[in-house]
From TrEMBL:
SUPFAM superfamilies, alphabetized: Dehydroquinate synthase-like
GO molecular function annotations of the record: glycerol dehydrogenase (NAD+) activity; metal ion binding
GO cellular component: cytosol
Protein name: Glycerol dehydrogenase
Pathway it works in: Polyol metabolism; glycerol fermentation; glycerone phosphate from glycerol (oxidative route): step 1/2
Key words, A-Z: Metal-binding, NAD, Oxidoreductase, Zinc
Binding positions for glycerol per the UniProt entry: 118, 168, 252, 270
Source species: Corynebacterium heidelbergense
Length: 366
């Protein structure tokens, strides 16, 4: 089975012509965004839609993709009579918009304001508790009807968001290859990965190595360049289709394992935590030096975390590491998609090994 959004649109100043892509879906969109994003792009999107004859309204996202927040906004939709949901913002806003659309049986359009993760194209939401602890995955019958990426908006987003997306996107090929080697099923357990998914994951990786450094420089200078366009597509479309049709493995399980801890790690972005998880999976797999150097070296070259200190866990205790590992090895997690079987003890040793390897590589390149 292969799954994807009905339509993916990317271009410069896309928000100015958003109605062109939204009108086939409905006439009264509800825009879900947080307060910060509303000031950056929400007001402009609402004005653009209104000018083109649509009856747009908006609802402020509370900050956590929890069932309580999803249910709250679902009730808002029922009162407003909106006929299409727009998720405008980052990963948790997008996950919430997707869930609200599913609860109300309405089409959903995703307008990411940063390419910090590959969530926009997916038919799954990551659900957290109100306190931000990973809770579950929600799978839907369909992908978003529309994903629209305005490269001008991305060019003016904080460069750290683009950097974060590089980490999430790099994990796509690392995990998809592991799932393919294991002949496992995808994260929703409905089907085996497709060759198309693996090909997209590999193209995603190729694009990152070719354009990431230039795209970071252009993002810093707010230039909507071709390199930035290519990385927007890699971080969003190629990575999104690659993970959904190729599968997830240990990397994202480690990311979710981090939610078992309190502290400064929760100030790190999704892609930053995923970046460290790439090293952990490589160590679990027993990656040879050339492979480990390639991936961990790339992450370090673009400024992404590869050591425990980088993710504020340099003082993590043995108990802390086992909490991460036990959650990562739980039945609901994607580490089971890996070739072979791993215990929490194996994962703890891989965490230590990833930290040690990355520190040595940093010292060598200093």
């Amino acid at each position: 089975m292969y799954t994807s959004p009905s339509r993916y649109v990317q271009g410069v100043d896309l928000i100015d012509r958003a109605a062109e892509y939204l009108k086939p879906l409905g006439s009264s969109p509800l825009i879900i965004s947080d307060e910060v994003v509303w000031g950056i792009a929400g007001e402009k999107l609402e004005a653009s839609l209104t000018e083109d004859g649509m009856e747009a309204s908006h609802e402020v996202f509370g900050g956590e993709a929890s069932m309580n927040e999803i249910n709250r906004i679902t009730e808002v939709v029922k009162k407003t009579g909106s006929d299409v949901i727009i998720g405008l913002g980052g990963g948790k806003t997008i996950d919430t918009a997707r869930a609200v659309a599913d609860h109300t049986d309405l089409p959903v359009a995703i307008f990411p304001t940063a390419v910090s993760a590959d969530a926009p194209t997916a038919r799954v939401s990551v659900i957290y508790t109100d306190e931000g602890v990973f809770d579950s995955y929600l799978f839907y019958n369909r992908n978003p009807e529309l994903v629209a990426v305005d490269v001008r908006v991305i060019a003016n987003a904080p460069v750290n968001t683009l950097r974060s997306g590089l980490g999430d996107a790099l994990a796509t090929s690392v995990e998809a290859r592991a799932v393919a080697r294991a002949n496992s099923r995808r994260m929703d357990d409905t089907a085996r990965p497709t060759l198309a998914g693996l090909a997209l994951a590999e193209k995603c990786e190729e694009t990152l190595f070719a354009y990431a450094h230039q795209a970071l420089r252009d993002n810093e200078a707010h230039i909507a360049s071709r390199a930035l366009e290519n990385i927007c597509e890699a971080n969003t479309l190629l990575s999104g289709l690659g993970f959904e049709n190729g599968g997830l493995a240990a990397v994202h399980a480690i990311h979710n394992g981090f939610t078992a801890l309190d502290g400064d790690i929760h100030h790190m972005s999704h892609g930053e935590k995923v970046s460290f998880g790439i090293g952990v999976q490589l160590m679990l797999e027993g990656a040879e030096k050339a492979e480990a150097d390639k991936y961990i070296g790339f992450l370090q070259s673009v400024g992404l975390p590869t050591t425990l200190a980088d993710i504020h866990l340099e003082n993590a205790t043995e108990e802390d590491l086992y909490k991460i590992a036990e959650l990562a090895c739980s039945d609901s997690e994607t580490l089971k998609q890996m070739p072979g079987q791993y215990t929490p003890g194996d994962v703890v040793e891989a965490i230590r090994a990833a930290d040690s390897y990355a520190k040595a590589l940093k010292e060598k390149s200093a």
